[in-house]
Amino acid sequence: MSSRRLAPDAVQPASFAFDKAGKAMVETWIAKYPAGRQASAVIPLLWEAQKQAGGWLPRAAIEHVAEVLGMPNIRVLEVATFYTMFNLEPAGTHFIQLCGTVPCHCMGAQDLKKVLKDKIGAEHHVTADGKFSWLEVECLGACCNAPMVQINDDYYEDLTPESLAKLIDDMAAGKPVKIGPQNGRKASEPKDSIKTLKDAALYDGSAVGSWKKAFDERVAAQKKAKEEAAKAAAEAGKATGGAPAAAPAAPAPAAVKASEPKAQAEPKVKVVAAKAEPKAKAEPKAGSKPKAAPKAKAAPAPSAAEPAPVGDEFKPELLKAARGGKADDLELIWGVGPKLGKMLNGMGVFHFDQIAKWSNENLAWVDQNLGAFKGRAVRDDWIGQSKKLATGWRPENAVGDKPVK
Known about the structure:
The chain is mainly α. It has helices spanning 20-30, 42-52, 59-69, 73-82, 102-106, 109-119, 161-172, 210-239, 338-347, 352-356, 360-368, 376-379, 382-390; strands at residues 94-99, 132-137, 149-151, 154-157, 180-181. Among the domains are: 9-82, Orthogonal Bundle (Arc Repressor Mutant, subunit A), CATH 1.10.10; 94-181, Glutaredoxin, CATH 3.40.30; 312-397, no CATH class. The longest helix has 30 residues, at 210-239.
């Protein structure tokens, strides 16, 4: 961003104060913020001061705003010099801001700059009659209508060197000018081959709510169709003596002629029985030897997903209380929280070296007694973690947030 400084003392007015309309505006803006937060209104107050001062901010106006808001002068000066919306030196009655960003540049902004230099002079220069000054600025957000300029609060778009020159001449002569696109198009519609729909109902507001009307008509039509179908069924029932009308019988299939190819006949579907039920065994005849009963099948072994229960013979060494009255912080084990820590203490586990001595069977026994936390001890390798923690190793000294397994 270019350096922004206050105008020379030679052009600075001796004083500044809001007029009656300005004071009313100041009160309105300050009232928008809570008590003690009036400094939040600094930007709108500077904007009002700029308007009253003729399009720029003298030093006296900046200091007056600081006084009104109870702010140090430097704080308000920081705001005024930061935002390019505030002019720090005199500007013309018609202050022209030329957009020079890429879209406008590609569409001819450089040619518009030549017109401004020829008719007004260099940037920041105010014409002798005080009517015009100009400045090249960054994107003004009207890229669809490039190239363009902003004059005071209004946009003038789709410019050519000729249309800009005429615009300046008309303003200098006090003639009315057209705001917006200068090439005849409306807003940002396509410049050529305009295909905008001409149906006025799309723009006059009459189409609003039309979807509901169409929806209601469709629902009404469906309801009417159901009522007519029910009425027809009732009348058919009366005609048959009160009994519901029988559905028409399906036509009997015609006999297949001998001359027709077999392919036209319905294919036979082979039905495979799932499994025939075993026949009941007949009672053994008198004098015959009874057959031996079939051997009972062994119970299936527990699946890998559900390990077999571990007996109490694999219970690890448990303590009635912590050694020395001070238990280790079991929550340092990754996966153990406050609830699990209390559960382990209640079980008789207080120290890392206890867990470090467990065998895999001990670990499995503890794991199966963890209730809702079953599977946690094996999954998170409590034995491996406790062996490290028992040596004084701590997670904060490891790489990353979790213990290295």
